[in-house]
Amino acid sequence: MDQLCVVTTGGTIDKIYFDDKSDYQIGEPQIGRILEELGVAFRFQVIPILRKDSLHITEEDRALIRSTVLAQPARHVLITHGTDSMVETARVLADIPDRTIVLTGALNPARFRGSDAEFNIGTAVGAVQSMPPGVFIAMNGRIWDPARVRKNVAANRFEAI
What we know:
Elements: E1 3-10, E2 15-17, E3 24-26, H1 31-38, E4 43-52, H2 59-71, E5 76-80, H3 86-93, E6 100-104, H4 117-130, E7 134-139, E8 142-144, E9 149-152, E10 157-160
Parallel strand pairs: 1-4, 1-5, 5-6, 6-7
Antiparallel strand pairs: 2-3, 7-8, 9-10
């Protein structure tokens, strides 16, 4: 992997809560800080394009994500995204050729102790380097085909369909 392109769109991974999980805003992307603290042995570029809860991501936003990925020379792309509509965004990217694209996020904000953010980012970094060209979702310690996964909101995890 020459360089990793990281596109950030917001989601829980970047949320900052001001009270008991009701009043929040999407803060600065956390992935750059996380990758730096982990001392990764590859170059990366972070491109923040949205700061939205994924329930509010529109088709226009998905078109922006797609055009951003297409505009980058990097063949390895990691996208941080909210989990509620991650699968829909992955499907919009599915026909992009010659790129390995991995979407990941978190079920708890990266700023929270015990968050799954670092684990999911680590899984996504491994996936983006080892998977063939295509689009994948890295959540809950697994690499998923977006056509065969869904978020189980009640169980708060991703599962095969």
